[in-house]
Amino acid sequence: MPIFEYQCNDCDRCFEFLVLGNEGPKKCPECAGDKIEKLMSACGFFSKGGSGETLKASASTSGCSGCSATSCSSCGH
Q1: Is the pLDDT of residue 19 over 60?
Q2: What is the pTM of this model?
Q3: Residue ranges of the domains in the chain?
């Protein structure tokens, strides 16, 4: 079952939600607002050298406007 990232447009909180079937969150867990938007999840990758060592790691920035973390689960916003 996939976990999706959402942002509440009432309080700007980013949060994750385990989706069962097609049911997304109805209310924000912080403010109980109902203006919720599904976010595009950050994508990360590792570049490996010939011996398997990590040469470069990359991840896009969070979709949350008040956060600089690479994952909404860690920002606490």
Answers
A1: yes
A2: 0.54
A3: 3-75
Please list, in sequence order, all residues whose beta carbon lies within 8 angstroms of the beta carbon of residue 16, skipping any fewer than 6 positions away. Answer: 3, 4, 5, 6, 72, 73
For strand 14-18 and strand 36-38, is the pairing parallel, antiparallel, or unpaired? unpaired
Q: What mean pLDDT do residues 30-53 have?
A: 83
Q: What is the Cα–Cα distance from 62 to 28, expressed in whole angstroms?
A: 18
pLDDT of residue 57: 62
CA distance 42 to 63: 8
Beta-bridge mates of residue 54: 48
Q: What is the largest CA-CA distance in the chain?
A: 50
Helix (H) or strand (E) holding 6: strand 3-8
Mean pLDDT over 27-42 rounds to: 91
pLDDT exceeds cutoff 90 at 43 = no
